[in-house]
Amino acid sequence: MKRILLAEDEPVLRMLVVDTLEDEGYVLDEACDGQEACDRIAAGRYDLIIVDYMMPKKTGLEVIREARVGASATDAKILMLSAKNQQTERDKALEAGADAFMSKPFSPLDLVARVEDMLGG
């Protein structure tokens, strides 16, 4: 069973993503801000981390950087979600260590397809 961490501060979007991916058989943990995401990454093992760009306490970029270095470094795939869809923002996310970038708004079907692609089916 693949485990996913979703770090998203918007409750409605968090619920949509959780419901969509749980319907596909994934196990999800949730974080509502960047610090909680970092704490969960340090405490658990995830196959995929889905992280929002703009969050309270720590940004998505900070979460990604922390997830990629130090004692709690993870080899989980990381998908950045953002309403900031300029190429410079995509580049920043990839440079920080994200494996992929997805612009908001997105369709649930597109999210499922991206997750399945990143997790190998």
UniProtKB/TrEMBL annotation:
Pfam families: Response_reg
Keywords, ordered alphabetically: Phosphoprotein
Domain (Response regulatory): residue spans on this chain: 3-119
Modified residues (4-aspartylphosphate): D52
SMART domains, per database record: REC
Biological process per Gene Ontology, one example term: phosphorelay signal transduction system
UniProt-listed Gene3D superfamilies: 3.40.50.2300
PANTHER family for the chain: RESPONSE REGULATORY DOMAIN-CONTAINING PROTEIN, STRESS RESPONSE REGULATOR PROTEIN 1
Protein name per Swiss-Prot or TrEMBL: Response regulator
